[in-house]
Design a protein that fits this description.
Elements lengths: L1 H17 L3 H29 L1 E2 L2 E2 H22 L5 H7 L2 H5 L5 H6 L7 H20 L7 H25 L1 H4 L3 H14 L9 H8 L5 H11 L8 H25 L7
Antiparallel strand pairs: 1-2
Helix pairs in contact: 2-7, 3-7, 3-8, 3-12, 8-10, 8-12, 8-13, 12-13
Length: 263
């Protein structure tokens, strides 16, 4: 509990520092929301034209879109600078975190806390509309609501693990932004759409080595498509726990090989 309390205190301090520039905070929030809205509107126009994609309706794809968006918002809110480890390695600022009397990862996660209000609002609205339509049509029951909350937390843990594993390569290569474009940005974009669109090798990649598909696609198969059985969600959660544990071990190994800017 002392570790959690310390993390929350550090997050609070980060929020207070960011709110010193309120105009910049609200402008970046609005711009991020507008970019996401335009992205989903383009998808909606395509779906209204063709009605469905690979058997997935507008509301089902909206569920995929909203769950990965909200999981990413949860991950980036509490661990944003894991995604930006490169700047700490290049500038040598990671050395400052090494001398703090708290775990390096905890110190890194508490830097530059982002509320990501635009993503939360947009994702929440899309998810509410899509789930509401699916429930009213009888395709899913009200049990989909608590199950989706579990999916969001599990998805955030998976995205955090992927981001952490990718960032860890920076201890050897220093530059990891291009790799992050592949494992985080491009992969997250890919699973906003049904994975039936992709060839078998790419689906396998997105479910194993870069398992973003486990964050929204696999749970959606059970929750909104009624495929497989009740065991699918526990299996996804177990996978997320094991994958996160492996990436934490990888992080500790990489950190032990880190050569500071002063060495």
């Amino acid at each position: 509990m002392s570790t959690v309390r310390m993390f929350l205190l550090l997050v609070k301090a980060s929020v207070r520092s960011r709110m010193q520039y309120k105009f910049n905070f609200w402008l970046s929030t609005v711009l991020a929301a507008l970019v996401s809205v335009m992205d989903f509107l383009l998808l909606s126009v395509i779906l209204w034209k063709f009605d469905a994609i690979q058997g997935w309706s507008l509301y089902e794809i909206g569920y995929l879109y909203a769950t990965i968006l909200l999981s990413k918002a949860l991950y980036r809110s509490f661990a944003n600078d894991v995604h930006h480890l490169e700047k700490y390695l290049v500038s040598g600022d990671l050395d400052q975190l090494l001398v703090r009397p708290i775990p390096v990862l905890l110190a890194l996660m508490s830097q530059n806390f982002r509320l990501m209000l635009g993503e939360w609002v947009q994702g929440g609205i899309i998810l509410t509309l899509c789930l509401g339509q699916l429930i009213s049509s009888g395709q899913v029951t009200a049990a989909a609501i608590p199950l989706t909350l579990v999916v969001l937390v599990t998805g955030a843990a998976l995205l955090f693990a992927i981001g952490l594993g990718t960032a860890t390569f920076g201890f050897w290569t220093t530059r990891v932004s291009e790799l992050q474009n592949l494992t985080e940005d491009a992969a997250n974009k890919a699973v906003q759409y049904p994975m039936e669109l992709y060839p078998g090798w790419l689906r396998t990649l997105l479910l194993t080595l870069i398992p973003v598909g486990m964050a929204n696609y696999m749970p959606a198969l059970y929750i909104v498509k009624g495929q497989f059985g009740w065991w699918l969600l526990p299996a996804v959660m177990a996978f997320a726990i094991v994958f996160l544990w492996l990436m934490l071990r990888f992080w500790r190994f990489g950190l032990s090989r880190y050569q500071s800017s002063g060495s």
